[in-house]
């Protein structure tokens, strides 16, 4: 029997007792990952991160700086989402928590229980990384109660995790749940004693009557497992409206079937209760229009800037609608005004004429509210929903004149927004299997930008800058106006120093401005001829004093070119020790290749690895067989060591890991056996 199956809340639901904040379920960011125990996960306290432990992904790279300036000390929901994102990007079931910077004695004394639990799982936390993953942790909603634990039903009290006391925000503060239960438990007990007479315990039976059923073919164990998977996938760390609606459909179908059978065991009743509570959580999430804390709805998140603008800037939207109405109606609708008396009432429907994604329903509703506030606008399908041909989107009823005057503006706006959302969604679907985002531009219909960009987010895309005030973007025409890339960057740096993005620069411009410098820094800004991009650090500041030997930057050549790290702090290159033909000979005793890394600030060079030190996984592939002609002209076979073949050098996004391969799929002697290596660096 599960300890937490939502029985108390389920009973409250059936009794129509008021609930609150059902959508807020907290995920603890760092539960110990173990293949052997996924049911009851052991929590690695946030205090470990508080002491200085850091999170690293599967590749061993620290990643929290990409998500929040507070890094590992960010709120739980942010850390959990960051971990989830890294797990997706690295195709892993966990990330690592690194506490190896501390001595064994300190960790054992400070975190004795964690130390012992990890040790039982074969992890020595003073020298091993701890595999961690987010896990469902605490339910912050529940039965709505007052300061004495009193629910909306008379004489009903709720205490503990089933109760919503109001002491939790969008995230639960660490370790206050026990204090909450103690305080509210005491206050509830005192209130009960002051109001209720002592009840004779003999009047209660210590048993539960379960009606017998003649026919029950439902697999409740399977239903329970399916529900866990459903809620984890669709109501988990990151939520999307479409997924939430899908979950509701599944839960409703199961509840319909369950309600028509009798139960044979307490376990079956628990499953029923779990589905009741799940539905309440789903409905609360759908009704929520705010993405905050543990209730992270992607469409309503702060990352979707335009959606927030749409919700908060009613004046902007209203002005747009009023201008459209003035444009369409002008001094009146000569046809409608002369045909109708003004007392007529009409009903109407918006019907989808082809499959698509709905966007702009609330804007269309606002059109009719401005024309005539008495019109009833019944929304059947909300934004982000997918519809098929013939689906009813809206039903409306009201004064016939008013409906006729507003319908064209409402439909024009709705059709445009749905079209953008639908086309965006098609593009998003095309790349859904890749780690990419579909992003919009400023090339929008004048006056409609906020609606156009909102429609992109509804279709699953993301917004680039909203307008020219968002950040600096230097383009060809800017460079022509001021004379050079160097001058453009210099002026921007002197005035604002904000993020610079360089795009749409003709290759000729780049070459003309850098050729005389042999690819060296141009006024402190290193220009990459290959990509036409400025070298900047993580905060967007253009790097200065790049110290590299004469040469050019490339994206992965294995010649003498330099492969610059994303933050510009390091550059890798390959140094060869072989003849001009780059081929191994029998006399090459010291034949080798090495990878060297240059510190771009100091110019210091360090050898990272030699090819001769690398061992092929297949020992046979370390040698090749050649035929040698002796002095008599006879051929004999001889094994010689295979020549080194370091290829495909690349940096990770954090500039803390350098990867490369040894071997080539085209090398007949290597038999396609390619080994991949990763060298890590301190940040």
Detailed description of the structure:
The protein is of the alpha+beta class. It has 5 domains: 73 residues, no CATH class; 112 residues, Succinate dehydrogenase/fumarate reductase flavoprotein, catalytic domain (Flavocytochrome C3, Chain A, domain 1, Alpha-Beta Complex), CATH 3.90.700.10; 86 residues, Methane Monooxygenase Hydroxylase, Chain G, domain 1 (Up-down Bundle), CATH 1.20.58.100; 154 residues, Quinolinate phosphoribosyl transferase, N-terminal domain (Aldehyde Oxidoreductase, domain 3, Alpha-Beta Complex); 99 residues, no CATH class. 33% of the residues lie in helices and 18% in strands. It is built from 18 helices and 25 strands. A 4-stranded antiparallel beta sheet has the order 2-5-4-3, with helices on one face. Strands 17-18-19-20 form a 4-stranded antiparallel beta sheet, with no helix packed on it. Strands 1-6-7 form a 3-stranded mixed beta sheet, covered by helices on one side. The radius of gyration is 33 Å and the shape is globular. 30% of the residues are buried.
Looking at CATH, the homologous superfamily of the largest domain is: Quinolinate phosphoribosyl transferase, N-terminal domain
Q: Architecture of the largest domain, according to CATH?
A: Alpha-Beta Complex
Question: What low-confidence regions span 5 or more consecutive residues with pLDDT below 50?
Answer: 497-545, 550-560, 578-589, 664-672
Broad structural category? alpha+beta
Q: Could you tell me the radius of gyration in angstroms? A: 33 Å
Q: Tell me the CATH topology of the largest domain.
A: Aldehyde Oxidoreductase, domain 3
Mean pLDDT: 77
Q: What percent strand?
A: 15-25%
CATH top level label of the largest domain: Alpha Beta
């Amino acid at each position: 029997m599960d300890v937490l199956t939502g029985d108390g809340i389920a009973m409250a639901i059936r009794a129509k007792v008021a609930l609150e904040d059902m959508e807020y379920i907290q995920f603890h960011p760092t539960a110990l990952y173990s293949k052997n125990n996924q049911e009851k996960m052991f929590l690695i306290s946030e205090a470990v991160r508080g002491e200085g432990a850091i999170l690293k992904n599967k590749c061993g790279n620290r990643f929290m700086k990409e998500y929040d300036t507070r890094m590992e000390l960010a709120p739980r929901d942010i850390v959990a989402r960051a971990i989830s994102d890294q797990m997706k990007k690295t195709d892993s079931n966990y990330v690592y928590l690194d506490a190896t910077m501390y001595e064994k004695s300190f960790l054992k004394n400070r975190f004795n229980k964690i130390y012992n639990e990890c040790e039982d799982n074969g992890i020595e936390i003073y020298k091993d990384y701890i595999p961690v993953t987010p896990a469902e942790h605490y339910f912050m909603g529940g039965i709505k109660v007052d300061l004495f634990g009193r629910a909306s039903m008379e004489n009903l009290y709720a205490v503990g995790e089933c109760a919503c006391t109001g002491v939790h925000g969008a995230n639960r503060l660490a370790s206050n749940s026990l204090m909450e239960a103690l305080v509210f438990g005491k206050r509830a007990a005192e209130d009960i004693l002051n109001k209720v007479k002592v009840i004779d315990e003999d009047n209660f039976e210590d048993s539960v009557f379960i009606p017998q059923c003649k026919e029950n073919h439902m697999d409740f164990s399977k239903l329970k497992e399916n529900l866990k998977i459903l809620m984890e996938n669709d109501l988990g760390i990151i939520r999307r409206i479409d997924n939430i609606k899908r979950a509701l459909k599944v839960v409703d179908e199961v509840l319909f079937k369950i309600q028509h059978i009798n139960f044979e065991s307490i376990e079956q009743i628990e499953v029923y209760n779990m589905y009741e509570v799940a539905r309440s959580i789903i409905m609360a999430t759908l009704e929520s229009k705010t993405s905050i804390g543990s209730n992270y709805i992607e469409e309503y998140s702060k990352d979707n800037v335009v959606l927030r603008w749409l919700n908060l800037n009613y004046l902007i939207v209203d002005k747009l609608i009023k201008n459209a109405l003035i444009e369409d109606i002008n001094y009146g609708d000569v046809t409608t005004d002369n045909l109708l008396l003004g007392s007529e009432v009409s009903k109407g429907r918006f019907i989808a004429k082809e499959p698509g994604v709905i966007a702009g329903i609330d804007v269309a509703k606002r059109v009719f509210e401005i024309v005539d506030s008495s019109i009833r606008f019944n929304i059947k399908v909300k934004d982000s929903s997918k519809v098929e041909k013939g689906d009813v989107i809206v039903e409306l009823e009201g004064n016939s004149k008013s409906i006729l005057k507003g319908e064209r503006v409402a439909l024009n706006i709705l059709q445009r927004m749905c079209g953008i959302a639908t086309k965006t969604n098609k593009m998003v679907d095309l790349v859904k299997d890749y780690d990419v985002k579909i992003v919009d531009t400023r090339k929008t219909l004048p006056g409609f930008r906020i609606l156009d960009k909102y429609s992109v987010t509804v279709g699953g895309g993301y917004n680039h800058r909203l307008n020219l005030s968002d950040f600096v973007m230097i383009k060809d025409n800017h460079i022509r106006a001021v004379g050079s890339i160097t001058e453009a960057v210099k002026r921007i740096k002197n005035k604002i120093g904000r993020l610079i993005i360089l795009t749409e620069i003709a290759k000729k411009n780049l070459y003309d401005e850098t050729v005389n410098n042999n690819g060296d820094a141009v006024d402190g800004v290193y220009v990459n001829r290959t990509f036409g991009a400025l070298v900047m650090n993580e905060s967007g500041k253009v790097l200065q004093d790049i110290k590299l030997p004469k040469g050019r930057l490339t994206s992965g050549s294995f010649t003498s070119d330099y492969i610059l790290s994303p933050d510009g702090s390091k550059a890798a290159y390959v140094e060869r020790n072989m003849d001009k033909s780059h081929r191994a000979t029998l006399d090459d005793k010291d034949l080798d290749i090495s990878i060297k890394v240059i510190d771009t600030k100091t110019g210091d060079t360090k050898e990272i690895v030699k090819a001769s030190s690398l061992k092929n996984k297949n020992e046979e592939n370390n040698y090749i067989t050649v035929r040698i002609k002796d002095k008599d002209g006879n051929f004999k076979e001889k094994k010689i060591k295979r020549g080194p073949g370091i290829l495909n050098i690349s940096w990770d996004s954090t500039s803390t890991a350098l990867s490369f391969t040894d071997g080539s799929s085209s090398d007949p002697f290597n038999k396609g056996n390619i080994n991949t290596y990763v060298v890590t660096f301190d940040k």
